[in-house]
Specification:
Length: 289
């Protein structure tokens, strides 16, 4: 579990202008974030546009990530959904060689009860050959996992942590106060990282770390002042990352940085508008000074 402390980067999946996967760009992103000091990779999450990849493409992306990584840092794999049996089937049909853990989002859209969420995750943890990290993001799922639900699940022997993106600091404090000593409370919001670490959290699974891994190294491993300054430096860019949906903003930023050759996304997302692209470019130029 120490492998998932500090900064995990929610990797983008770069596309070429024809919307095919840009494997060269993927390798460049991975080299950039590892050389910048991230502690682990999170592959095929929401930021990786996993929902718009075919089953075969997911296998290809995972294989490429493992090859590019070459054992340098641990890898966490996104496997989740709102059909429990489909998630179980995906787990059973996945080759976990080189994968240290899975990140599984709370069921979205169908809004299960808290008891249903517990049953969903219990089924996943019972069959997963690797440890499971929960993921609460009610802004997207329309269903909040309460602190009580998280704490109940924290005692399952194969559930090791929670990516908390509720934005509710009091809920995070309730989790931190009651969780087992070795349970991982991870920020799902870049700007909340320092706050969550201060109450007992272990780090962040970050979007902006695709672009600024060195900043997040200071944020998660630096002293108090360094972490604060790192947080403040992200303010103007962070607000732009989600204006037109994730990963529209971060891909556009990576494009302006010259790390990927295109900011292409797949429908129903559209690449950044001209106005947003200019805002991101301007904010990046200010950040770089």
């Amino acid at each position: 579990m120490n492998a998932f402390k500090g900064t995990g980067v929610a990797l983008v999946t770069p596309f070429l202008d024809d919307q095919s996967i840009d494997f060269d760009g993927l390798g460049k992103v991975i080299d950039h974030v590892i050389s910048g000091g991230v502690d682990y990779l999170v592959v095929l999450g929401t930021t990786g546009e996993a929902t718009t990849l075919t089953t075969e493409e997911k296998k290809e992306v995972l294989k490429a990530c493992l090859n590019f990584n070459n054992g340098r840092v641990p890898v966490m794999l996104g496997i989740g959904g709102n059909n429990t049996q489909a998630v179980l089937n995906e787990i059973q049909n996945t080759d976990f060689y080189g994968v240290a853990s899975i990140l599984s989002v709370s069921p979205y859209y169908n809004k299960p009860s808290q008891e249903g969420i517990v049953a969903h995750y219990t089924a996943i943890a019972d069959v997963s050959p690797v440890p499971v990290v929960l993921y609460n993001i009610p802004g997207r799922t329309m269903s909040n996992m309460t602190a009580a639900t998280t704490l109940k699940l924290s005692h399952h022997p194969n559930i090791i942590g929670m990516k908390e993106a509720s934005g509710n600091l009091e809920q995070c404090i309730q989790i931190a106060a009651g969780m087992p000593k070795d349970f991982l409370l991870l920020s799902g919001d870049d700007l909340m990282t320092k706050a969550i670490q201060s109450i007992g959290g272990s780090g962040v699974i970050s979007v902006l770390a695709n672009a600024f891994p060195d900043t997040f190294k200071k944020l998660t491993h630096g002293d108090h002042e360094a972490a604060l300054q790192a947080t403040y430096s992200l303010l103007s860019l962070n607000s732009l990352m989600y204006l037109e949906g994730n990963p529209v903003g971060i891909k556009n930023l990576l494009y302006h940085m010259g790390i990927i050759s295109s900011d292409q996304v797949r429908l129903p997302m559209l690449r950044a508008s001209y106005e947003l692209s200019n805002q991101i470019k301007t904010a990046f130029q200010k950040h770089s000074k």
